Amino acid sequence: MKKTGVVRINDIIDQVTSYHAEADVDLIRKSYVFSAKVHQGQTRLSGEPYLNHPLSVAKILSDLNLDEYAVSTGLLHDTVEDTYATIEEIQNNFGEEVSFLVDGVTNITKITNKNRQDRQAENFRKMILAMSMDIRVILIKLADRLHNMRTLEYMPPEKQKNIAQQTLDIYAPLANRLGIYSIKRELEDLSLSYIHEKMYREIEEKLVITSDQREKYVREVVCLIQEKLNQFGINARITGRSKHIYSIYSKMLQQKLDFSQIYDLTAFRLIVGSRKECFEILGIIHSIWKPIPGKFKDYISLPKANMYQSLHTTAIGPEGQRIEIQIRTEEMDSVAKNGIAAHCKYKEGRKIDQGYDQRFSWLRQVMEAQTEVRDSHEFLETFRVDIFPDEVYVFTPAGEVVELPKGSTPVDFAYRIHSDVGHRCVGAKINGNIAPLKNQLKSGDVVEILTSSNHKPSRDWLKFVKTSRAKSKIRQWIKLQELKSSISLGREICEKEFRKHNLNFSKLLKGDKILERVSKEGIKKTDDLLAAVGHGRLRVRHLINMFLEEGLNGKKHAAQSLSSSAKKVVCRKSGHGIRIDGIDGVMVRHGKCCNPIPGDRIMGYITRGKGVTVHVADCSFVVSACPDRLLDAQWDETSRHVATVPIEVICEDKTGLLAEITSSISSEKTNIVKAKIKTTPEETAVNVFDIEISNLKQLDAVIHAIKKIRGVLKVSRLKS
Ligand code: MN
Fold it and tell me: If you average pLDDT over residues 10-22, what whole number do you get?
């Protein structure tokens, strides 16, 4: 980790003049003197003079090659907030431009009387505001944060993690989006060292242990490349250095790898003279080592939005190790290091150079949004699209920022707040207006969740929720409900079926006799047993057989005679006219898809928590159903069930034929519920009659009668 050495003002001035010969050096010197005066006597938590902080911030800004106004602001950035100095004083002494920047930086961090959440939202908004006004404000803020992170060890431990997390959440992505990769990497590593200290140290240590070996490898690769380039007469600066710890950590986490399994710890960089040479070298590299398909990226022809340009490729290097190679020109390299900052130097006015501005179209949009609208919601929306394209930032009514993936809905928001809020949410107010639960949230929305204590999650929510948290919570809840209803259905089935065999299920259960027997099938608890029966995984007949076969309770003989009386019970009791594999008294419904009628071969299907549905045995639903949940079913001879069955009659299109058909149906004592008649261009008629049928014999008779009519071409029962 970088430690801060003492920075001297002359070093900063020398550096600024090295890249900007006409810089107003006096402005920087004056700022230094003023800052030293007003911060006098103040110390930082580390015990060093406070002035070291603004000096370090100014140094970071000069490292980014920023102009004298930005560097001066670095020196003055804390004066208005932390000393008696006023913004008017700054304006009088240092002019409009510096005071504008100081004001911008001060406003981002200004502590208001609001609570923590309000401040969080407000700061966020201000940061976007500031950025839209002048990108230098954000660069100064980044430099400020970088130095604070470098000296975070002096903060109380409870604050360290919070600050580090915020840095990782907001500042590092911001640096990344602005293309300032050097700051991005340092912020990420520093944050990680506080958030997951142990992990950080471990990776750091392993990098040290393996460094000799790695350096040897790097030398070998560099030599090989150099040799080849010499052959082609191309000059290049080749460096190979270890990736930063955070990127190794992310890779280990994402790909669930161990440190030892990460081979491409080193990234090679080739800096060459021209764009043309970049592509030549790429060809040479690919001729030495086999490139990995899909890993080649041409950011030279298609620069990133932050103007980053480079060629990236990954190849199988010596010893079969993957090596990552970046190829770019000197100029591209400076953009890669300082990003947008590389284009902020030597500026005349407040705004960014027109030429660069045009290429930073996303930033220009933010700037235009600032002049056209004063709505903070729209700002956040623009910010979302441009800086964090995959996230939305919304607010609780208390002003707390909630980050959600793009496409999230109020239900996702509710589950993010608390799973109880999610389970009970009945509606939502977005920006004060009632909105559907499936509405997609936009950055800046204020979301209020309406709850009702007896409301339950809906399976339909799964169709639109975006976050995995909401999905898993809803699924968990549904599973639990299904388990509960499976248990009660299972208990009902068991009690009734055991009773039929003169066995007392509750008693057997209490005596652990049943659990003893099913334990070898992996069932340990009563609820598991009941759920298995209710769910259809375990046949109740199987349970009963265990007792009947073993002659338990001394009821061996009684059992046999009982089974015949059991049948009778079924016939008498069943109101559905259907017997299902020994189960009785459960809710039975008829499948709407196939409309089974007495006489059809049928199957029962255990519907989770809803009893049993009866289908025709060859119904497409049964064919594709899970076999564990299918039950044998028979029609009860005494059944009085009447089903409405559609039959299709295709006949010639001639007068009187329809009347003949309907009268033949009636003559079989069959009611017609509905008739649909359609003629076709081929002079045939297609008639569909819904008729009331109480058994298959009746249906056959009706079909037979219709078929006998002259002019009828085809009669068939319709099944879906
Ligand atoms: Mn500061």
Answer: 89
- HEC sequence for 161-189: HHHHHHHHHHHHHHHHHCCCHHHHHHHHH
Q: Report whether pLDDT(36) > 90.
A: yes
Give the three-state DSSP class for 467: coil
d(CA 528, CA 534): 10
Q: What is the spatial distance between Cα 401 and Cα 325, in angstroms, rounded to a whole number? A: 39
- Burial track 241-266 (b if 16+ CB lie within 10 A, e otherwise): ebbbbbbbbebbeeeeeebeebeebb
d(CA 705, CA 699): 10
Question: Among candidates 490, 551, 547, 467, which has minimal Cα distance to 514?
Answer: 547
Given a contact cutoff of 8 angstroms between Cβ atoms, the answer to whether 701 and 669 are in contact is no
For residue 82, the CA-to-ligand 1 centroid distance in Å is 9
- Which H or E run contains 589? strand 588-590
Strands (E) across 492-560 are located at: none
The mean pLDDT value for 452-465 works out to 88
Looking at residue 467, what is its pLDDT? 86
pLDDT digits (tens, 9 = 90+) for 319-376: 888 889 999 998 888 877 776 666 554 444 334 444 443 334 444 444 344 333 334 4
Could you read off the pLDDT of 288-318 as tens digits, one per residue? Answer: 888 888 788 888 888 776 678 899 998 888 8
Q: How far is the CA of 78 from the centre of ligand 1 (A)?
A: 5
Residues identified as active-site: 81-82
Q: Which of 497, 176, 574 is nearest to 339 (CA)?
A: 176
User: 272 with 281: CB under 8 angstroms?
Assistant: yes
Confidence grade of residue 12 (pLDDT, cut at 50, 70, 90): very high
Q: How far apart are CA 40 and CA 56, in angstroms?
A: 16
Q: How far is the CA of 173 from the centre of ligand 1 (A)?
A: 20
What are 653's strand-pairing partners?
none
Taking the C-alpha atoms of residue 674 and residue 692, their distance in angstroms, rounded to an integer, is: 10
What type of residue sits at position 148? N
Q: Which among 242, 231, 304, 250 has a CA at the least distance from the CA of 269? A: 242
pLDDT at 212: 86
Helix, strand, coil % (nearest 5) of the chain? 55, 15, 30
Q: 135: closest CA among 340, 299, 310, 313? A: 340
Other residues' Cβ atoms within 10 Å of the Cβ of residue 373: 12
C-alpha 31 – ligand 1 centre gap (Å)? 15
- The pLDDT, as a whole number, for residue 139 is 83
* Mean predicted lDDT score pLDDT of the chain: 79
CA 495 to chain centre: 45
The per-residue pLDDT for 638 is 66
The pLDDT of residue 567 is: 32
User: How far away, in angstroms, is 35 Cα from ligand 1 center?
Assistant: 12
